[in-house]
Specification:
It is built from eleven helices and 14 strands. By secondary structure, it is an alpha/beta fold. It has one domain: Alpha-Beta Barrel (TIM Barrel). Helix 3 packs across helix 4 and helix 7 crosses helix 9. The chain is globular, with a radius of gyration of 18 Å. It holds the Pfam family Radical_SAM. Keywords: 4Fe-4S, Iron, Iron-sulfur, Lyase, Metal-binding, Nitrogen fixation, S-adenosyl-L-methionine. This is FeMo cofactor biosynthesis protein NifB. Belongs to the radical SAM superfamily. NifB family.
């Protein structure tokens, strides 16, 4: 077999393995969304960027990202997985998506490393804003994480500076254009590095009609070039600094997905889950109340 044919064969085998993997991931596959379960482990308390629409909270009533009943330690999280599998054996994915940024502390990666020993067959999924994605790429790979979701709300600093107030980078706080430019650079570097290692990368984009509606196709084009394989465009939840902004209507959301679909597969079943969600999303089988039976606790998102 020539070297060229060998490379092509390896690429086909990698693609087949990836398709098999994603077929069991309810946040990457429409079919899996109604068949397989996932659990989100809320182990990440702080964040290293400030998005104007983001408000992290501790409560049991709001059904949105950035909300959890409690922030867990990595050891507590592993115990919760054991309990969740008893309640829902259909769980195929263990993900970490907050309530803060997963790579702002070591908690998420420590949890995944522990889960790799305890539950090697579960798909491990990391959600991140992407600022530290390139820096921690080797550790992500070594932890056995096979799917990564990166929130990319713009690929032009002029637009992103109106969505993200600033970022914490190497001990400094970078605001406005400077912060937006650095965030985009690091996101694209991280996406490229991980996709080159065979990790499936999904991009999550918050659709804000007055800011990035006409930018959806360009986001999809750029992240596709970097190596992303799927995009999830989700409507703005007006809150925090954007509480006066309007969410997109159905036509705007459909248009944005159609434009992005020129470059990427589009995931259309996102439930905008809490950071402690558990169950089969497509069946409305949520088990969070059975997992978290402790009282509320004070929470500071740093």
């Amino acid at each position: 077999m020539t070297d060229c044919c060998k490379v092509e064969t390896e690429e086909v085998q990698t693609h087949q393995k990836l398709n098999h993997l994603l077929g069991k991931h309810p946040c990457f596959s429409a079919r899996a969304h109604f068949k397989y379960g996932r659990i989100h482990l809320p182990v990440s308390p702080t964040c290293n960027i400030q998005c104007k629409f983001c408000k992290r909270c501790i409560n049991k009533i709001e059904n949105r990202p950035g909300v959890t009943a409690k922030v867990l330690t990595p050891k507590e999280a592993v115990k919760i997985v054991a309990k969740a599998l008893e309640l829902c054996p259909e769980i195929s994915v263990v993900g970490i998506a907050g309530p803060g940024e997963t790579l702002a502390t070591d908690n998420a990666l420590e949890t995944f490393e522990m889960l790799g020993t305890e539950y090697p067959d579960l798909i491990k999924c990391l959600s991140t804003n992407g600022l530290m994605l390139d820096k921690y790429s080797e550790r992500i790979i070594n932890a056995g994480i096979k799917t990564v979701s990166v929130t990319v709300n713009a690929v032009e600093p002029d637009i992103l500076q109106n969505i993200c107030t600033g970022i914490f980078w190497n001990g400094s706080y970078l605001k406005d254009y400077e912060g937006a430019e650095k965030l985009i650079q690091e996101q694209l570097k991280g996406i490229e590095k991980l996709s080159n290692e065979g990790i499936a990368v999904k991009v999550n984009t918050v659709l804000i009609p007055d800011l990035n509606y006409g930018h959806m196709e360009e986001i999809a084009r750029v992240v596709s070039k970097a190596g992303a394989s799927i995009i999830n465009i989700i409507p703005l939840i007006p809150q925090h600094e954007m509480k006066s902004f309007r969410p997109p209507d159905c036509n705007e959301l459909n248009n944005a997905r159609e434009w992005a679909g020129k470059y990427l597969n589009v995931f259309r079943h996102c439930r905008q889950c809490r950071a402690d969600a558990c169950g089969i999303p497509g069946k409305g089988k949520e088990l969070g109340n059975l997992l978290y039976d402790f009282p509320m606790e004070t929470f500071s998102h740093g």
